[in-house]
Amino acid sequence: MVGLGPKRKPSRKGSMADVPKTLLEEIQNLEDIFTVDADRLKLVTEHFVSELKAGLEKDGQNIPMNPTWCMAFPDGNEQGTFLALDMGGTNLRVCEITLTEEKGEFDIIQSKYRMPEELKTGTAEELWEYIADCLQQFIEYHHEDGDLTALPLGFTFSYPATQDFIDHGVLQRWTKGFDISGVEGNDVVPQFQAALDARGLPVKLAALINDTTGTLIASAYTDQTMRVGCIFGTGCNAAYMENCGSIPKLKHLNLPPDTPMAINCEYGAFDNEHKVLPITKYDTIIDETSPRPGQQAFEKMVAGLYLGEIFRLVLVDLHENKNLLFEGQDISKLKKPYTLDASFLAHIEEDPFENLQETQDKFEDELKINASKPELELCRRLAELIGTRAARLSACGVAAICKKTGTESCHVGADGSVFTKYPHFKARGAVALREILDWPKGKKDPIVMLPSEDGSGVGAALIAALTLKRIKEGNIAGVRNVQKYDIWMK
């Protein structure tokens, strides 16, 4: 009997021998537009370092560099039960987290709720009412007997906010497609707490955090070599621990210079002046048609919210202005803004078949477009180019933080749908880091991006725990109302 041998995955290497010259020339044009070489990456990184420093110097810079008043890494011995609320770009998640006696261990129960699209452009009252409703549903479902005492809540509010205290946050600007009236320029904590109190819920906000800060702290809970936390998802951002002596805008507080302070960079706004980023005409269209033109320049090139839209704009341009794709077909579905997301590109990149059958099915099912094999080859290459550009530019932020702090070796905790689900994103980012930082070939990378623990949930609980711990120790820097914490100090 002849052995069958191992099963083989369908090949997708193929060639472009059947692609017409006009499409080959356009593919070359797209490669020229979207490819970011090592020299450009280094230029972007150097400018990134300068904008990180500028944000620490004073307020009002492109990159805000917001102090978070999270002032320690966890040691793994934190204990207690906490609520965690995570308001992301797409979903709202409520968690109850118990940090157990086992070092670095926790138990979690959670529920997820969809953020209604109409809420994203609604009013502040509608937002907080919806969130309070979800929290009430969670408590009533998991504590039917009403046994819940006043639990401390860590609220992951993943939008740029100025924090003068750990339980305070003035929204600087909405991102991720949100544009809710009555919130920008206001402290979100009393607005949110009022909605909770109106329902008589036994919940008090102990810490307002950003998901990047949560990612940093949750990652460090199980890995002592973590130094940076990143989010590559609907938006993009990073957090790291800085010494207060290196934060000139906090000098007036007279904090000991070696005091650690987690910084929420909010670096989606990097290079809003377009000094170094390789902006294409498609990036310009995205910016000009966004709710906030001129803002979040970096985020609009690398974040999951925009990758599908960049892809869609290119295809519409090639159809309408260059007559290169989908001749004679109805592309009305493709012409709808934001009809494609990053998962569409990921699906194309993961198509294992030589004839790109899965990609063809995707176009037919979702866009009612019957694409030819050469057209599919162009779409495939375009998806690779957009995904690769996002990964390579994303590495610039990580490299800049490490260069700014003099960090030569560490782990970077990364979370977000693009990092965890987009094919090759992690590997492409690792290649870019090697090029930017000139690491020797053939040796182990000294800085490695790893999937994070649940930063927006466990991280929120841990930061609440760390806040209570330092208040007990008498360190009340960055705490607005110490008396509020008395209910948990007994």
Automatic annotation (TrEMBL):
Species for this entry: Exophiala sideris
The gene coding this protein: hxk1
GO aspect biological process, one term: mannose metabolic process
Signal sequence, renumbered to the chain: none
Gene3D superfamilies: 1.10.287.1250, 3.30.420.40, 3.40.367.20
Hexokinase N-terminal domain boundaries: 27-221
Stored PANTHER family: HEXOKINASE, HEXOKINASE TYPE 1-RELATED
Pfam families with a match to the protein in the record: Hexokinase_1 (PF00349), Hexokinase_2 (PF03727)
GO terms for MF: ATP binding; D-glucose binding; fructokinase activity; glucokinase activity; mannokinase activity
Protein name: Phosphotransferase
